[in-house]
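User: Could you write out the 3D structure of this protein bound to iron/sulfur cluster? I've included everything you need below.
Assistant: Certainly. Input first, then the structure.
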Amino acid sequence: MSKKEIVKKKYDMPLQDAAERAKSFTEVALGYDMETAVLEAERCLQCKKPFCIEGCPVNVPIPDFIKLILEQDFAQAASIIKEKNSLPAICGRVCPQESQCEKHCILGKKHEPVAIGRLERFVADWEMQNTPELKNPSIPVIDQKVAIIGSGPSGLTCAADLAKLGYKVTVFEALHTPGGVLVYGIPEFRLPKSIVAQEIDKIKELGVEIRVNSVVGQLWTIDELMQEEGFAAVYICTGAGLPYFMDIPGENLNGVYSANEFLTRVNLMKAYQFPKHLTPINVGERVAVIGGGNVAMDSARTALRLGVDNSYIIYRRSEKELPARLEEIEHAIEEGVEFKLLTSPIEILGDEEGRVTAIVCQNYELGEPDVSGRRTPIPIDNSTYTMEVDSVIMAIGQGPNPLIPASTPDLKVNKRGNILTNVAGLTSIPGVFAGGDVVSGAATVILAMGAGKKAAESIDEYLKGLRN
Amino acid sequence: MFKILRKEVLANKINLFDIKAPYIAKKAKPGQFVIVRTDDYGERIPLTIADFDREAGFITIILQEIGRSTYDMGKLEVGDFFLDVVGPLGKPSVIQKYGRAICIGGGVGVAPIYPITRALQAAGNHVISILGANSSATFFGEKMLKAVSDELYITTNDGTYGEKGLVTDVLKRIISNDDIDIVFAIGPLGMMEAVSKVTSLKRIKTVVSLNPIMLDGTGMCGACRVEVGNEKKFACVDGPEFDGHLVDWENAKQRARMFEKQEKVALTQSCNCHSKGEGCNV
Ligand SMILES: Cc1cc2nc3c(=O)[nH]c(=O)nc-3n(C[C@H](O)[C@H](O)[C@H](O)COP(=O)(O)OP(=O)(O)OC[C@H]3O[C@@H](n4cnc5c(N)ncnc54)[C@H](O)[C@@H]3O)c2cc1C
Ligand SMILES: Cc1cc2nc3c(=O)[nH]c(=O)nc-3n(C[C@H](O)[C@H](O)[C@H](O)COP(=O)(O)OP(=O)(O)OC[C@H]3O[C@@H](n4cnc5c(N)ncnc54)[C@H](O)[C@@H]3O)c2cc1C
Ligand code: SF4
Ligand code: SF4
Ligand code: FES
């Protein structure tokens, strides 16, 4: 490679104007055009020992696909990304790159790292718009059926990989639309649902059957799927969908939502188009969102788009500890979300009708770091104050849904209800594997996908064993 | 897509549908429910599985038109489809030989009480049914329930059919001179609350089926949370049946009003965007 001047900063991502977009559900980040993508690709040093790959949970061949962008062979770039990552248009948009691939990029030591996520998104979007001829590798048909429970990123990845190997794959999904958090949680303005639908269509083209409206544990037990329905292996990837509440007074008032309820109403049920879509939502003029992760940012920004006057984030640590993606925090601030940091609610107040009127908060300070290295928040005495709000959204975390463990006595779970597996993803029951948020606890899209990949390999090994 | 095989108008604004859903029919048990959606614009509406035929592969739902979504559903006819039907959801009723059981159905609650009554009788209980309605125009279910009960009482508020009065009037009379082992009550919140008050005096175990606002029905959203014995329960997965003596009724009634304003808007809007929108301006 010829020596060249290093461009110190990432090329800017074109964004919709902050004031405009805070009123609209259309996508915020608009994506690189071809020229910018090639310019950004030129920043990559094509390292012999690319640390970036180590930072990616599914080891996307980053320098290789970036080189193909330089050569303007976008179809090939897409193809080699897809060998490792079957949902690149989604990951390019929602991966926390700053703590994964880009964190390890060598350029990032002195300057800004290469914008790997944006390039990945560019390639994936290019492929969707230009749909190059599907190379139709003749897949050998294997006469064994695999059941996948949950159609989030983990299940979709596992399904795609197994289908490519020739297995007959059926995905069971409880809701009426597949995609998991990608459709019911992450909002349209961050991840357009048409992108998710296109990715899912491609997986269906591989021969995967997706059965919506199918709640495993209620309609079939795991045992019935294997004994009666003829599935030789099962992958459980039901996510971390059970919302936590704080157990403070006033949590059952009208106007208190779990983030899951709020986001599901707006995203999956399209309450933002009420009454054309019949599912209602009612948040009033002032919304307080409790929490500091992606879920909280999504809730606060969604509330803005429903037209509230004030959207507050209430978080008990400081800005540095906010667990959300950096980009989401920046976008939230630009759009007008107000941050009440080092603050936690202790009570929600209501009127005689039972509607939320205010939230009582207490100030916090940070103490010593705990085992995880994060500084523990400590309440400050006599620091309570009351804020008038019309609704409260709880975004303080989710646990695994107990439906499947409750109907599967032999399935071992830990104290928090997460399914226990070995390194290969195998649970305490032969032929039954698990992965994604239901095993790890609420994590990220790409980690859930990584677990799905791993499970597909393990299931293939296991089924090969049964065949011989 | 779930095809409507049969429709019957049971009373004013109360419709019965048999819906083809072989997998659900195979698994359904008394006390469980489904969530249905009419079309892409529709809400997810919870409805009790009022009956099921495992061989023929259909389930029966009985619904009362009270708001926009149930009104839309009421207009569906044989041969039409529900876009989505998911279930069976919730825990089944605990059916065993209790001895002497009273089953109370108020209003459209007569529908969900039916499969429970039938199962209790089949399990060898002596079953006394009490059915109540506002008036003869909204009353239904006599023949159905008669076939599975040992005794049957009917009340209407206005006295246009059966005894004039409330189901609790009959209940009080029965428990004052009969030893009852268990009461199942399904109907409007106020009725279930009143029943629970009456039975608590004599400490008769009372099971009620709560019908809070729901969304997913799988324990994912918490919209259906109710306070039972000072604990938060998700009615869709922990219920819908709970011990009536432990339910926080005031909170349940308050939460049912969550979307009152929006429900009115939905009901009165005249829209042409909706697939079956003609005449939705009721
Ligand atoms: C609002 C929000 C924003 C987020 N933002 C980001 C982000 O920006 N970047 C990022 O990397 N991560 C983000 N995450 C986290 C990420 O979405 C999850 O880690 C990931 O989706 C987990 O994938 P999964 O496949 O394990 O489970 P899920 O995506 O939760 O999918 C599980 C699926 O299983 C179904 N299911 C559950 N039980 C049953 C059953 N019994 N039978 C049948 N189906 C069942 C569920 O309906 C669901 O569709 C966010 C999460 C939320 C909630
Ligand atoms: C587990 C369960 C089982 C049910 N089984 C049946 C059944 O078998 N047959 C049947 O007809 N209905 C049943 N319901 C009630 C049914 O789901 C509601 O009637 C329906 O959701 C109302 O929708 P809507 O849009 O027509 O009315 P909305 O516009 O939502 O409501 C109109 C009016 O009814 C009140 N309301 C709203 N939801 C409910 C509710 N869940 N219960 C009582 N009042 C309510 C509102 O406050 C409002 O005043 C059940 C509910 C649950 C949770
Ligand atoms: S999948 Fe995520 S972590 Fe991996 S390279 Fe792409 S954006 Fe980075
Ligand atoms: S570490 Fe950075 S510069 Fe090196 S190959 Fe990876 S992306 Fe390119
Ligand atoms: S309806 Fe969502 S948790 Fe019960």
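The longest strand of chain A covers residues 356-369.
User: Perfect, thank you.
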